[in-house]
Amino acid sequence: MSSTASKILSSIGLCLLAIYICWAMMMPDSRYSNTCGEVRVYLTDSVSRQFVRTNEILSMMRQNDLMPNGIQVNKLNTEAIEKLIASHNLLRKVVCFTSPNGDIILKLSQRIPKYRVIGENGDYFVDIERFPMKVTTRTASYVPIVTGNISQELATGEMFDFVSYIEDDSFWSVQIEQIIVNNKVVKLIPRVGAHTIIMGGLDNYERKLAKLEKLYTDGFSEQLGWRDYKEIDLRYEGQIVCR
C-alpha cells in the first residue's frame, strides 16, 4: 500500500474516531437514562408496631411536590425526600434510595414508645430516645402511664431515668402501675393493694425504693400488711411513715 493511501485511511480512521467520541459525549449515560418507577414504602418493624401507613407517606410527598413521576433517576433528590419523611413525628429513621429498575425505595423505622404522659400539659408518648411522640388511634401501646402536672422537660429528663430504673428492676417492674405528679410531688400507684406510695421528689429514688422494698419483703407481717394502709410516705430521711 502506498504512503498516500495509508495517509488517507489514517485520516478516515481519525475522522470516524472523532465522530464516535462526539456522539458518545452527547449521549446520556445508560445507567441514568431511565425514569423513576414506583415508590415502595417498607416499615422495617411493622411486625411489632404499625403507627405509620403507606398512604400517609405518599401524601406527604405529593403535597410537597416530591413524587418522582417522569423524573430521571439521576435527577431524583433522595436527600430532600428523606428530610421530608423524617419530619413525621412517629418515625425515627428514614432511608431513601433507588433500585436497579428505577423504583424509589423508602425504608422507615418507627419510634418505640417507652411510657405515656397524660396531664395538664398534653397527652403524648415519650419514646426510647426521650423524644415526645404524638398519640393517635394507631399508637395504642401497653406502657407505663405518668399523669398529673408534668412538664415536657421533666417528662424527657428525670422522669425518663426514673421509669428506666423501674423497668430494669425485677421487683419494681411488676409492682408499679401508674406514676402521678402533682406540684412536683411524685406518687406511685402499685398493682397490689389500695395504698399510694409518696416519693416526694425524684432525688435519691434508688435509696427510697430500696428502703420500701425491704419494708415490703421483711417489714410487713401477714397480720399487719400493706393492705391496712392508705399511704406509704418515703419523704422522710431514715424512716417510712405509714398512714
Descriptive notes:
The relative contact order is 0.08. The protein contains six helices and twelve strands. With about 240 residues, the protein is α/β, with parallel strands linked by helices. The mean pLDDT is about 85. Strand 5 and strand 6 form a beta hairpin. It starts with a helix and ends with a strand. The strands form two sheets. The protein has a nine-stranded mixed β-sheet with strand order 6-5-4-7-8-9-10-11-12, with helices on one face. Strands 1-3-2 form a three-stranded mixed β-sheet.
How helical, in percent, are the residues? 25-40%
Q: Provide the low-confidence segments as ranges.
A: none
Mean pLDDT: 84
CATH architecture descriptor name of the largest domain: 3-Layer(aba) Sandwich
Order of helices and strands: HEHHEEEEEEHHEEEHEE
Question: What's this entry about, in short?
Answer:
Helices cover 30% and strands 26% of the residues. It has helices spanning 3-26, 54-63, 78-86, 152-155, 158-168, 205-219, and strands at 39-43, 91-98, 104-110, 113-119, 122-127, 132-134, 145-148, 176-182, 185-190, 196-200, 231-233, 241-242.
